Amino acid sequence: MIIGKVVGSVVSTRKSEKLVGNKFMIVEPVHHMKGDLSQIVAIDIIGAGIGEYVLVAQGSAARIGCGVETAPVDAAIVGIVDDGAGLE
Questions:
Q1: How far apart are CA 60 and CA 55, in angstroms?
Q2: For 43-78, what is each residue's pLDDT tens digit?
Q3: Which domain of life is it from (predicted)?
C-alpha cells in the first residue's frame, strides 16, 4: 500500500463492462514512496477529491479491497488520509 496525492482525474467513456460506473483518479505517490512510479491511475471507490492524500492498494489487494475481484484493476483508492503531517 502506498500514500499519494490525487492530482487529477481520468474520463473513459469506453472501458471494460466491469469498470462501468467507476471513477478513476491520477495519484502521485509521496516522495519517499515513489520508487520508479511518478503517477498511477487508481479506481476510486470512496469519493476522493483532487488535492487529497489517499491510501492506494495495488495488485490483487486492490481488486479485493474494492469488491471487483474479476475486473482489470491494479490500483484502488481505499482510504483518505485525515492528517498528512510529514508526508511531503
A1: 15
A2: 998 999 999 999 999 988 887 776 777 788 889 999
A3: Bacteria
C-alpha cell at 15: 472501458
Task: Report the half-sphere exposure of 50 (CA within 13 A, side-chain side).
Answer: 5
Q: For the chain, give every domain's residue range.
A: 2-12+20-80
Average model confidence (pLDDT) for the chain?
A: 87
- CA distance linking residue 82 with residue 34, whole number of Å: 20
Sign of CA dihedral 28, 33, 38, 40: negative
- Look-up of cell digits 492524500: 53
